[in-house]
Design a protein that fits this description.
The complex is a heterodimer of chains A (about 80) and B (about 400).
Chain A: H1 4-19, H2 40-54, H3 60-63, H4 69-80
Helix pairs in contact in A: 1-2, 1-4
Chain B: E1 5-13, H1 20-29, E2 35-36, H2 40-44, E3 51-52, H3 65-69, H4 73-89, E4 99-104, H5 110-123, H6 132-136, H7 140-149, E5 155-156, H8 164-177, E6 183-190, H9 195-203, E7 233-241, H10 242-247, E8 254-263, H11 276-288, E9 296-300, H12 310-321, E10 329-331, H13 334-337, H14 344-358, E11 360-361, E12 383-384, E13 391-398, E14 402-409
Helix pairs in contact in B: 4-7, 8-14, 11-12
The chains are: A mainly alpha (about 80), B alpha/beta (about 400).
């Protein structure tokens, strides 16, 4: 079980890998599309990599609800519980 | 009168140099890009061939990590070569609606395709990344180059196996002549040093088995040639309408004076032993360039080093050039670079342009005992080409019976 801090750090690493964005730019209140400029294909790549990293399943219909990094951390944390 | 098309920029990433100056310097010395492969898959799959000519500078050392991640290795090479050619052209302003791309590949995104297939089988469909198809599609390289340059007059992908790169130049010439574009980034890219193509070409007995001596394996025209050597990389040329180039005071390497593409309709892999399709291509390209056979001083031959392939090309050259064939300096640069498949025509076009521009024919290495049935005048040490107006040819032939020829004329 990863803590929320660990999930955030892991997500930041995945986002950095996919987009080159500095990990510290990936903050809880940041919107994936509006703030981090992540397109839908990159978002799906991040989702697939997050599933693998955290051992969770993020259903496709859930992805559109993950507007901010915080949303993703909360979802992953809940899915791990 | 058709629009004249000139070459104003060159780019290449090859087994004998990661850029044009390095490649050309090596091409005049004569070096081999073929080496024993260190990848674990060679032993894992017990491949019969243990060597290849890998690009001397990995594209991942040049592109950013994020750029590289979204491109198949073949498209990575394409972007590297196209950027070099674009910079070399010195173009600073261009009407992007009049800028086209013609970037070929023989095989396309084979690494991406088969890596994703492994992922699907081992981890299931959820783990197959969304970029898989845009990365594996054969037009991936042309699309990547188009995006990189903002080329909006069409991004085309000629696919004709090992003739693809030369066919891209043919298409580029046509796009400018027909008025559809003023500038074309033309080239070819390939990254197929992967166990599957290696296994397939081996089964076909097309690859050299000289595992104990890779540097001497690619030996076009030699009596003891036993197959080609897999290569990888890309070549890129900026083609430009002459008036466009003159208007901006561009540096001009030479004229792409004529091209031709024909098909054998003889056999899916074997060349027509009489070289009839190749002969037609040679004659048509010379006609297209309004050149006489006696104008030709240099040929960059297709010459892959296979027992069956090298001779029909000679037959075709003899048929097209007549007795003048004896006066032509022939270079088989695959002896150095290996066979870059769909990129080979583009890389060899770069070599041909440089040969005409610098009046210097590059070296054919590993010719120890010339096949008596192929009595061409093969260049084995860099040789001066004549002053004055000269013409050179570059040939490419591909599985499927594809024949493509370009004619380069001096402008300096």
């Amino acid at each position: 079980m990863a803590s929320n801090e660990e999930i955030l750090a892991g997500l930041a690493e995945i986002v950095n890998e996919e987009t080159g964005l500095a990990p510290e730019a990936v903050e809880l209140d940041k919107s994936f599309t509006d703030d981090l400029d992540i397109d839908s294909i990159s978002m799906m790549t991040i989702v697939v990599n997050a599933e693998e990293k955290f051992g969770v399943r993020i259903p496709d219909e859930e992805v559109k609800n993950l507007k901010t990094v915080g949303d993703a951390v909360t979802f992953i944390s809940g899915a791990q519980a | 009168m058709a629009r004249k098309v000139v070459i104003t920029g060159l780019g290449a990433t090859t087994p004998i140099g990661g850029d044009v100056p390095t490649m050309w310097a090596n091409a005049l010395i004569g070096v081999s890009g073929a080496h024993t492969l260190t990848a674990d898959w060679v032993a894992k799959y017990d491949l019969p061939v243990h060597f290849a000519a890998k690009a001397s500078t990995p594209a991942t050392e040049i592109l950013s990590r994020v750029e590289a991640k979204r491109l198949d290795p073949s498209s990575q090479f394409a972007v590297v070569a196209a950027r070099e050619a674009w910079k070399d052209s010195g173009i600073t302003e261009v009407d992007h609606d009049r800028l086209a791309v013609a970037f070929a590949t023989g095989i396309g995104g084979v690494w991406t395709l088969l890596d994703a297939w492994d992922t699907l089988r081992e981890k299931g469909p959820r783990r197959v990344l969304p970029m898989t198809v845009p990365m594996l599609m054969p037009n991936g390289a042309a699309a990547a180059v188009s995006l990189d340059l903002g080329a909006r007059a069409g991004a085309h992908t000629p696919v004709s196996a090992c003739a693809s790169g030369t066919e891209a130049l043919h298409l580029g010439l046509e796009l400018i002549r027909s008025g559809k574009a003023d500038v074309v980034m033309a080239g070819g890219a390939e990254a197929a040093i992967h166990p599957l193509p290696m296994a397939s070409f081996s089964s076909m007995q097309a690859l050299s088995r000289r595992n104990d001596d890779p540097e001497h394996a690619s030996r076009p025209y030699d009596r003891d040639r036993d197959g080609f050597v897999m290569g990888e990389g890309a070549g890129a040329l900026v083609l430009e309408a002459e008036e466009h180039a003159l208007a901006r005071g561009a540096h001009i390497y030479g004229e792409l004076a004529g091209t031709s593409v024909t098909a054998d309709a003889y056999h899916i892999t074997a060349p027509d032993p009489e070289g009839l399709g190749a002969t037609r291509a040679l004659k048509a390209a010379l006609f297209d360039a309004r050149a006489q056979n006696t104008d030709v001083v240099h040929v960059n031959a297709h010459a892959t080093s296979t027992p069956v392939g090298d001779k029909p090309e000679y037959t075709a050259l003899k048929a097209a050039l007549g007795s003048h064939v004896d006066n032509v300096a022939v270079s088989a640069t695959k002896s150095q670079t290996g066979h870059l498949l769909g990129a080979s025509g583009a890389v060899e076009a770069v070599m041909t342009v440089l040969a005409v521009y610098n009046r210097k024919a590059p070296v054919t290495i590993n010719l120890e005992n010339q096949d008596p049935e192929i009595p061409l005048d093969v260049v084995t040490t860099a040789r001066d080409l004549p002053a004055g107006d000269i013409v050179a040819l570059s040939n490419s032939f591909g599985f499927g019976g594809h024949n493509a020829v370009i004619v380069v004329r001096s402008t300096n």
